[in-house]
Structure formats: structure tokens, C-alpha cells
Amino acid sequence: MTTGTLVASPLPKIGRMELAQIPIPEATLTYKPVPHHIIVEALAETLSFRHIGMVNEEYAVSFDGMKMFGVLDLETQMEGCRFSIGIRNSHDKSLRLGLTAGLRVFVCSNMAFSGEFSPVLAKHTKSFNLIDTLAVGVDRIQRGFEPMRRQVEEWRQAQITDERAKLILYAAFVDGKLDAPRSLLSEVHRLYFQPQYEEFSPRTIWSLSNAFTSASRNWIPFPNSKRRRSWGPSCLNFPRNPTVSPFVI
What we know:
Elements: H1 16-19, H2 36-49, E1 54-61, E2 67-78, E3 81-90, E4 98-105, E5 111-113, E6 118-119, H3 130-157, H4 162-173, H5 185-193, H6 205-215, E7 245-246
Antiparallel strand pairs: 1-2, 2-3, 3-4, 4-5, 4-6, 5-7
Helix pairs in contact: 2-3, 4-5, 5-6
């Protein structure tokens, strides 16, 4: 089982020690950029205070070092998945410090995030307390774990016909309801109808979701916009009121 699920090339995955080597812009009277590695260390400390252990962490940084995105896999689990926390930060004010709840699927390392990043800090000023700020964000993330678990269980039970799956694929790539190249259509189709893993052999929304996310591994770029778009069946509003947005990073 591979673990290369953070970011599609050409941006490599790096560790916490490499984050510490990234230079930061000089502070001004109104703006104090917080080093990426300091934020990650503060998040790890915040999790430790709540007795939440980490089993893996991986990060990627834009070529200019200004934007950082990371995933911290937690000890907390549900059937077939492990809960994760996604984190983002920027030194150039392009992205507000934010967190989001996630799941990593054991069998294939696919990631699913619960919606958009929730900013936990209005701006990097000289007066804010990083630990207190992240504590609020982590508490919010923890409250989101149970809804994610329930949604995944619903998706695992949501049987769909082959015709319905093909209509979803058609709507996504041909009707243009998904912001993705049409060239991925055949790969999503293959992964769903000829699954690589036994876990995804049932014809369910969960299996279709993982076909979408697996196919996107070599397409999704580093998140350089203020919002990350949902990618997968959830962006097509099927099933009703989804709370988990499949998104491979």
C-alpha cells in the first residue's frame, strides 16, 4: 500500500525538519508571518494536550515557500479508515491559517476531507496566541469526526445501479458539473467497474467516491487558491446532503 497521497508532482512531500528550513518574510507593524514549522509544532502540542496521538505527518510547500499544506494522520480510527487533520498556512496572506477534518482509507490511502478549510485565525497579528487559536480549531475538528463517520457508513450502505453510476460520471465529465479534465473519465470508470481492491467491489457511493479520488492522484495541483473545491460524487449533490467531500491531495 502506497502512502504518497499528499500532493501530486512536481511538488515533493517534506517532513517537519524541512519545514524549519523555509525562510519567512520580515514582519511589519501590522503583519507577523508565522513560520510553517512553528504552526505544525503548536498543532502537535495542542493534539498532545488532548491525548490525541499522531501516526504519520506529511507536508508540501509551494516553490516560493509561501504556501504550506499538510496532513496529520491520527491514532483515532473507524472501520477501514483513520481520522486525519488537514492544515494550511501562508506567509504571503494568500491563505488564512485553516484546519479541516479528514479520513484516510487504509486499503489505498485515499483521503476524504469534510468540506472546505475552516479558518482559525483572522490574520497574523503580533498579539494573537497560537496555541489558544489552534485549540479552538482542534475542538471544532473533533466535533466533526462523528458526522464524518456516520456519512461514510451511509455511503457504504448506499447501493447504486450501474446505470446510475454511469449517469453520475456523465454529469461530472460530459455535462461539466465537475471542474476536472474529461480525460479522467475513463480512469474513474475503470477504477469503479474494475476495482483494484476488494473493499470497493460493492456498487456503492463509497466505492464510487474512492474511484474518483484514486483517479485524481496525478491531477490535483497544490492548493493555491483560497478555497479547495470538492471533488467526487459529493460535488454532484448525490446522495442528498453529503457531509464528506472526497478529495485526494
